[in-house]
Amino acid sequence: MVAKALTIAGSDSGGGAGIQADLKAFSAIGVYGASVITAVTAQNTQAVSAIHPIPDEVVTAQIKAVLSDIQIDAIKIGMLGTPSLIEAVADAISGFEGPVVLDPVMVAKSGDVLLADSAIDALKSHLLPRATLLTPNLPEAAKLVGSGAVEDQAQALLGLGVGAVVMKGGHGIGDICTDHLVTSAGTRSFAAPRVNTRNTHGTGCTFSSAIAAFMAQGRTLPDAVARAHTWLNKAILAADQLNVGQGHGPVHHFHELWA
After folding, report:
1. Annotated catalytic residue, options 18, 81, 163, 202
2. 169 flagged as catalytic
3. What percent of the chain clears pLDDT 70, i.e. is strictly above it?
4. Which of 168, 169, 177, 206 is catalytic?
5. Do 249 and 242 meet the contact criterion of CB atoms below 8 Å apart?
6. Given CB 3.0 to 4.6 Å as the disulfide criterion, which of 41, 101, 204, 248 pairs with 212?
7. Using one digit for the tens of pLDDT, what is the confidence trace for 100-152?
8. Is 159 a catalytic residue?
9. Is 38 a catalytic residue?
10. 243 burial level (CB within 10 Å; 0-12, 13-18, 19+)
11. Could you report the per-residue pLDDT of 174-184, keeping only the tens digit for each?
């Protein structure tokens, strides 16, 4: 049986992040992908020029349509945008018993804001307690629980009800990029040399989707994170081969299949 995963996220017309990145990651790893679109963005490698939210009831209908027919093994959640949509998604997946990977998408690589500050409390109240895994970068973690040491931020997030946290190191400094998986059992770190490229658009979406894909295949959380970390590093190493756009180009999701 082929594993199946569902992404609930926004659409990136440039193809590097959001729904498009999620489905590419699922496919590259060998998982069938279904999708629920929460917003349509006019976006390229340089900027987000427009955002059109999908009505809450339409997002709910998409989720119900998929879950009522397809045996989904894991869910990845990305861009949501508003408090009411966050509540609607939380309600729509309340009966889902598989792993949920939540990527708290707040700001695009271009710097454009994708999650209103008013929605942060709703995210913390309604979706964080439902998440098997939360995958914030350093700025997102600071918005959720305030600034501080990475370990302290992770513990604060666990205190909000999250099952586990991957504190992503992409926004850090130094020659080594380290992601930290923090659970109630302790911390496990995954390090790789930082790649000198500007083509990192969609790395957050891609990483969380890769984790969800590996979990959909039945792998344990630590194994899924380890495999996703290695796979994404290779996708970043191959990113310059694509030569997409004039800004922050995408990573190469299909680096193992074609160049």
Report:
1. 202
2. no
3. 97
4. 168
5. yes
6. 101
7. 999 998 876 666 667 777 889 999 999 999 999 999 998 899 889 999 999 99
8. no
9. no
10. exposed
11. 789 999 999 99
Amino acid identity, position 233: N
| CATH fourth-level superfamily of 4-241 | Ribokinase (3.40.1190.20)
- 20, 48 Cβ separation under 8 angstroms: no
Global pTM reads: 0.96
Clarify whether 168 is annotated catalytic. Answer: yes
41 belongs to the catalytic site: no
The helix (H) or strand (E) run that includes residue 34 is strand 32-43
CB-based contacts of 177-185 (< 8 A; 24+ apart in sequence): 179/225, 179/229, 180/150, 180/151, 180/154, 181/221, 181/222, 181/225, 182/151, 182/154, 182/155, 182/158, 183/158, 183/221, 184/158
**How high is the mean pLDDT of the chain?**
94
Distance of alpha carbon 172 from alpha carbon 138, whole angstroms: 8
**Residue of 18, 81, 204, 249 marked active site:** 204
> Quick one: DSSP state of residue 129?
G
Q: Choosing from 38, 200, 206, 249, which is the catalytic residue?
A: 200
Whether residue 35 contacts residue 223, with contact meaning beta carbons closer than 8 Å, is answered with: no
Which tokens sit at 255?
Answer: 């680096």
> One of 16, 205, 206, 249 is an active-site residue; which one?
205
Which of 109, 203, 206, 249 is catalytic? The answer is: 203
